[in-house]
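Severity: low
Component: inverse-folding endpoint
Summary: output formatting inconsistent between runs
Steps to reproduce: submit the following structure tokens with default settings.
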């Protein structure tokens, strides 16, 4: 890194399959406009959404990904924060869709990241405790905040008699930990591809769903390619009152359900960045019971700060999920190896959550 450049994990042009591998490159450090903040990321995560972008399943344009992590303030701009303050960044602006960190503007996979003044004034830079820069905390805080926020929405609407978590990735497993802590006697059924889950294609799954006591809360934590199918299966087979937290993204437009053709993406998008509270939960009638739909895009800053504090003070929370800790160069090897092989293995282990150590305190 020099006075005018820094290193970043940069996406290469897409291949014939739409995949974008990455490389470590020296890039110009962005010039700041009045009020902008410059950050020095320390530890950052590789998110499931990042993998979707890298695989060509999303068309997000930025050349530098990364929206999970902890950084230090280098230039404070309009934030009023002293240089060296540890912070995390809320990647979703509740009112301005042009700000989506690591999606449509350069993210945290870099030694320097610019946060525009509009995001600064919206309070999206969130100060955190001095010990929050450790890899597990930095990489898991955002998905934990999202899982916890979804749980708060569901518990505000119903008192569940059973829980289904559809998707056994990071968000799904964190959601399971949170629900078991809050309601240890609640029956919980995990649908996914792990050894402790029921496979989505299993012949026994429809019968299992049909026997659940009402009301049921279902958390859909799949990649966006699996959200619609999961919702349709749940809605078709679960009787009585069913509340579905549509955590995973999905394409806009109506989805055919027994309750009718419903624009589920619009319902999910109506709750953005933690606002409003209580969030809208839409109710629909179906032949075999009530259907309640909710979801959210992003969380509030306080949700992120609370997630950071939970991870700092509860070392067992998410302890088995951080599978890899790598530097920038090894992160490029990890990403490119996973894309080339089509598997989720690197250095002899399955990739669950990877944390990238980008730099140290400036």
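Observed output (run 2 of 3):
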């Amino acid at each position: 890194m020099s006075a005018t450049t820094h290193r970043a994990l940069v996406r290469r042009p897409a291949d014939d399959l739409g995949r974008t591998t990455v490389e470590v490159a020296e890039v110009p450090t962005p010039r700041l406009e009045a009020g902008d903040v410059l950050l020095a990321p320390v530890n950052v995560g590789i998110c499931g959404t990042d993998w979707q972008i890298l695989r060509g399943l999303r068309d997000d344009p930025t050349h530098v990904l990364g929206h999970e992590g902890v950084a230090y303030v280098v230039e404070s701009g309009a934030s009023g924060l002293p240089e060296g303050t540890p912070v995390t960044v809320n990647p979703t602006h509740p009112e301005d869709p042009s700000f989506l960190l690591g999606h449509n503007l350069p993210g945290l996979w870099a030694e320097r990241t610019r946060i525009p003044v509009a995001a600064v004034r919206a309070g999206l830079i969130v100060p955190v405790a001095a010990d929050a820069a450790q890899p597990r905390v930095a990489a898991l805080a955002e998905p934990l905040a999202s899982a916890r926020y979804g749980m708060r929405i569901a518990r505000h609407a119903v008192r569940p008699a059973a829980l289904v978590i559809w998707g056994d990735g990071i968000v799904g497993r964190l959601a399971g930990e949170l629900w078991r802590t809050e309601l240890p006697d609640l029956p919980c059924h995990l649908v996914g591809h792990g050894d402790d889950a029921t496979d989505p294609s299993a012949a026994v799954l429809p019968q299992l769903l049909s026997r659940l006591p009402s009301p049921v809360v279902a958390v859909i934590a799949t990649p966006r390619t699996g959200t619609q199918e999961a919702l349709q299966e749940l809605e078709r087979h679960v009787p009585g009152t069913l509340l579905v937290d549509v955590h995973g993204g999905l394409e806009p437009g109506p989805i055919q359900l027994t309750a009718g053709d419903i624009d589920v993406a619009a319902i999910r998008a109506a709750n953005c960045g933690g606002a409003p509270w209580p969030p809208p939960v839409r109710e629909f009638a179906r032949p075999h019971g009530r259907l309640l739909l909710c979801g959210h895009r992003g969380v509030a800053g306080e949700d992120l700060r609370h997630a950071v504090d939970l991870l700092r003070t509860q070392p067992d929370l998410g302890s088995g999920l951080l599978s890899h800790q790598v530097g920038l160069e090894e992160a490029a090897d990890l990403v490119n190896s996973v894309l080339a092989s089509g598997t989720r293995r690197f250095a002899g282990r399955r990739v669950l959550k990877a944390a990238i150590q980008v730099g140290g305190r400036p």
